[in-house]
Structures are given as structure tokens and as C-alpha cells.
Amino acid sequence: MTNAFYSQFAGNAAKSSVLSVEILRDALLPNLLGDDSSGILYWAGKDLARKFPVDSDADLVTFFDQAGWGHLVVTSTSNDLLTYELNGEPVARRNAAIKNPDYMLETGFLAEQAAQRFNCVSEAKLTATKRLKIEMAVTVDHKQPLTNHDPATPIDIVRPDVDPDASEN
């Protein structure tokens, strides 16, 4: 179900309404969740990562773009620390329109993607919030393997069709 759901909507990502997403994300959810909003969104991001596992950093970048979360850049990787930058129009727009936009959904998503990829406990945190970019770090604890872990099959990332003749013009 998850792969079919993703495939159906990823191809139409550019046509989706930004307004509908922002109304839900930044107007409705904070009111419903109250003071617990950040924590719940972090765990919601982890849950989404379990439903939409990706196979590689390139797929992770594509998924973030398609989800409308912004452009994800892998800034560094080591055995136990992954760092990311989230930038682009969605980040600039949210930061300009909302006093304190919450990026814990994305942070939780990154934490769980790392946990699934490395089969061990992983936690993520925001390390910097700037006007045009968000920086996040994921700590991977190889000393704490996941128990009863049955990794999900990664989704098949939908890639936009690229017209080879279009680049020649």
C-alpha cells in the first residue's frame, strides 16, 4: 500500500497545493497538539520514515523535494554522525510566514531513516535554524542495535521524466 500511495502522488508533487499542506502543517496541527506539538511531530516523522523507507541518500533528497519539505543536502557523514542541511523555497517561505516554524517532522524522519539503514538506535536534533536553511544532525548509536527489527522494503522512488533534448536548447 505504501509504495502504491507514494507512486500515485509523487508524480503529481508539483501540482499539489502548497496552501493545503501549510494550513494543515502550520495552522491546524499546532493548535490540535498544543505544547506537545514538537515532540509529536518528531515521532510522526519517525512513523512516516517507517512507512516510506528509502534506499540511499539520493533517494532521501528526492523524497524531501517531493514531500515539499525543501532541498536536503547531506553535508557530512561519519560512522556515528550524519549532518544535513535543509534549504530551498519551502524553508524560506515557512520561515518568512511563520514566527517559529517547526521542523521536527523532518528531524524525526531523518532519525528513523538512519535507524532503518544502520539497524541501530538513532536520534536527530536541530543544530541550527537560520532564515534560509535548517541544519540537523543524526547520531547513530552502533552499540544499541534494534531488536526484533524487520526492515521494510524501500519504496521505489519516482524520478521526474527528463527530456534529453531539453538540455540542448
TrEMBL record:
Pfam families xref list: DUF2507
Region (Disordered): 144-169
SUPFAM superfamilies per record: Ligand-binding domain in the NO signalling and Golgi transport
Annotated protein name in UniProt: YslB family protein
InterPro entries to which the protein is assigned, alphabetical: DUF2507, NO_sig/Golgi_transp_ligand-bd
